[in-house]
Specification:
This protein has 6 helices and 13 strands. By secondary structure, the chain is α/β, with parallel strands linked by helices. It has 2 domains: about 1-135, Thiamin pyrophosphokinase, catalytic domain (Rossmann fold), CATH 3.40.50; about 140-210, Sandwich (Jelly Rolls), CATH 2.60.120. The two termini are about 30 Å apart.
């Protein structure tokens, strides 16, 4: 598995990021526009820097321009894709099979929602993709999954339809179980569930779900 870390320009708890990165290893680091400032504060040297650089401080750009090993992927501000989407495309193009995105939540809601939707083409192409912050781990599933209490991000697990309908949801090992339930986009039925034991599982027959593992 080839793991990629993307740090983009949303709000990022640097204390959380430092602690998380101290426990993880990545094969590639991609910094995205203003996320480069967090990268510098965290003492990281990215392999690639992506963006139109309309929101990053000039002195931070100058600092990394001196590093010859870094690949720069520079774009005009007027473009069809966000900088985060461009970074995800680069991760896919370089053969990454798992990507973790920091700095994709907080700040502007349009960017946060857009970033969650960017997980969908990753799912379609078979690349595991996760958005992380200090309280949440967000990802998509289109098939059954087992959850282990020791591995989930927090106390709560929520499931939200990304597609118009998700059919045949069965939840076992959860505080609020379901049996072959169809849910449509726009419902809050599967918000804030919890495991009752060490493991729980979800199965469903059709559709795509947003999974949010979280804690207060």
């Amino acid at each position: 598995m080839k793991r990629c870390l993307i740090i983009t320009g949303g709000k990022l708890d640097l204390s959380f990021a430092g602690s998380f990165l101290g426990q993880e290893t990545f094969d590639k680091i991609i910094a995205v526009d203003a996320g480069l400032e967090a990268v510098k504060t965290l003492g990281l040297e990215p392999d690639m820097i992506v963006g139109d650089f309309d929101t990053v401080k000039p002195e931070v750009l100058a600092y990394y321009r001196r590093m010859e090993h870094i690949v720069w992927d520079t774009h005009q501000p007027e473009k069809d894709e966000t900088d985060t989407e461009l970074a995800l495309l680069k991760a896919q193009a370089t053969g990454c099979t798992e990507v973790v995105v920091l700095g994709a939540t907080g700040g502007r809601m349009d960017h946060m929602l857009g970033n969650i939707h960017l997980l969908f083409p990753c799912l379609q192409k078979g690349m595991e993709a996760y958005i992380l912050d200090s309280q949440n781990r967000i990802y998509l599933i289109d098939k059954e999954r087992t959850f282990n209490r020791r591995e989930i991000w927090g106390k709560y697990i929520s499931f939200l339809p990304l597609t118009e309908e998700v059919r045949g949801i069965t939840l076992t090992g959860f505080k609020y179980p379901l049996h072959e339930k169809d849910i449509e986009i726009g419902t809050s039925l599967c918000i804030s569930n919890e495991l009752v034991g060490e493991e729980g599982a979800i199965t469903f027959t059709d559709g795509v779900l947003i999974v949010v593992e979280s804690h207060d």
